[in-house]
Amino acid sequence: MDARSLDIEAHRLSVVAERPSGPAERWLKYVSFPFGLVAFAALYAMPLPDGLTLSGQAALAAFVLALIWWIGEPIPTYVTSLVLMVALVLTNAWAEDRVLAVLGLDVIWLNVMAFVLSAILTKTHLAKRLALLLLARFGARASTTLLALLVVQLILAPLIPATAARAVMTLPLLLVVSAIYKSTSQSPTNFGRNLFLQNLFGINIFSSGFMTGSTANLMAVGFILTMADHRVYYTDWMFANLPVAIVGMAIAWWIGPRWIFRIRAEDAHPQLEGGLETLRTQLAEMGRMTPAERKGIAIFGLVVFLWVTDRFHMAWFGFGIDAVMAAMIGVIIAFAPKVGLLTWNDTDIPWHLLIFSAGAYAGGMALDQTGAARWAVQKIFEGLHLGRDMNFWTVYAVIIALNMYAHFVFTSKTMRTVIMLPMVIGIAKYLGFNPVALALPAAFTIDWVIGLPISAKPNLIIFSTGQFSVLDQLKFSVLMTTVGTLLLIVAGFTWFHFLGITPAW
Amino acid sequence: MVARVAAALAGALALAVPAFAQAPERYVETVVLAPDGSARVAATVTLPRQETHALVPVPDTAKNVRAGEAASASATLVSRGDRRYVRIECLPCGEGRAIPLTYTVASWPGMSARLAHDNRRISYGIVNTTGDAIGMFEGTIVLPPGFAVTSVDSVDPPVTDATVALPYVISQREGRQAVTITERAIPAGDRVRVTARIAERGSLRVLLAVLMLTAVAYLVRFRDLTAIPKG
Fold this sequence. Notes:
The complex is a heterodimer. Chain A has helices at 23-45, 54-72, 77-90, 96-101, 106-123, 126-138, 142-159, 163-180, 190-205, 215-228, 234-260, 275-286, 291-308, 313-317, 323-335, 351-369, 372-384, 392-405, 413-431, 435-443, 457-463, 470-493, 495-498. Chain A is an all-alpha fold.
């Protein structure tokens, strides 16, 4: 491998890589196409169940079709998204103007701005410098490299609540690291899969360690205050759940390269002739920081500063600057003649991914707004027949599992919280349990949104690297979601009981 | 178009919702819509202990008004200003003060003409025009046979992030879809309303056939995916 492979301008995200498929993947492709159509037909034509509207039924059928095709990939994921958008409109599930308007959502804009900002780090070679610095110290083995990057994510989590912003910041760094380990979108290795999926996992679940980690966390706290009359403080949340998030991350770091995506011994070291010494040499050859790098740091620093200080904007400026506007300000400066350092040709925007995400968000929003998601969750709760004769721990385990796995059908943490948390509190009251003992641990599952590329904003940004498939992510996420469920159940017996959240067992 | 819909909605609100000279303790009604737009309404008005009558506004085309089977209750169509009411009365009023009321409507004003995608818009609810709070309201509108709710467009009071349970329930009644609104204590001047689009479900045979043919065509055209690559 030559040194040029570390220049990530060579790895363009906008180029869709052709990945060879194994026999199992080819079979999955083959059966998923007709299976998706049959599932769609069955759901769309079934007698309308109680509580579901026609548009909800159509949205559910279209979303399930897309989900099966995203997983099996009989057609490219972005084409599936287009099919989903067409299906939503033709089946009258969601109005055409609303479906098309999804491409203008803040999350799509944030993605576009994020990819432009990433170009700053790549063009100035800042990403390469940071990656070399990190790897020269920790990069002798795959495990320490992965661990170092996860520690970076843990440090960033309380500083930058916006998960998408953290994904943007670290994406170029991850790309250089993956290149050093010879994992590319054309030929991804298990190191690459572990690297990107673990960082995606870290970005999301470290947010669950802090009450301010996401808006949905704060909404959950609001529900607990208004419906259960209990105030949850920042430290209550952090002491309770940060250890759970860290243990969850440690488990992912441990089992990922060993069980889920086994890293071969030959892939577990930097794939450069001369190994670490070459990296150190390259770092030395880069010399002192260039003016362009300093300018890049200044622009990126300004954006990060605006992200970190969002709660003070109103007092300082008289108006608020949200994550998208902060990124846009950075992009404007980056493109400004003489002041900035980018031209449009330097940017690398994967439009296929934005089409994919637009379709995915349209599907998710249609599920939410037609009431289909709420209906599905209610049916599950009803089907469980939670009765007054059940003991607390059975109910606790069911609630945790349901809240955890529910993220596979929601694309919005906020919507999931709005639907699930009041139900949990209502069930707790009905069964005569302390609502906080069920609702707070349920709230700790909010940020475990690792299921699919569409489950959360950073997932999509990381998915853009093309180094793992939807099926890879599903494999990783099903296992880690199960681990998370078990962790929170064990924590309920032990740590949460010690903190006075759950009762004795 | 928007103005016409707005006018239709305003008309529907003005006519489709009952109001009372005195607020009842409890008002329960079921509106059964027919495909031609006519409706059969069956209601139960529970009067407060000290009251012997109430006025219920009805659409202009209401007829066949009856106050159930009770000999002590009567129902009479009356006009006040430009609106029509049913005056229901119990003389003497016994212990049970729930008065059954039925009437028919030639053209239910809360249902619009056909819109895009063969949808119709229905608006259903109650405005408390009395000076007192209505203790409890439960209203059900049963859709014409074969019709179903396409989507619920708006709810009053609006559903917010703090809404725990939706104020309406969609269910089946004798094989027909129905929307029920239940609201405890509607203060004077407040209203409860659901505006939804409904549509008759067309035949899906052609679509299902096309989907199945596409699936089979794919299995044939892409059968090479199952072959083991050489080498």
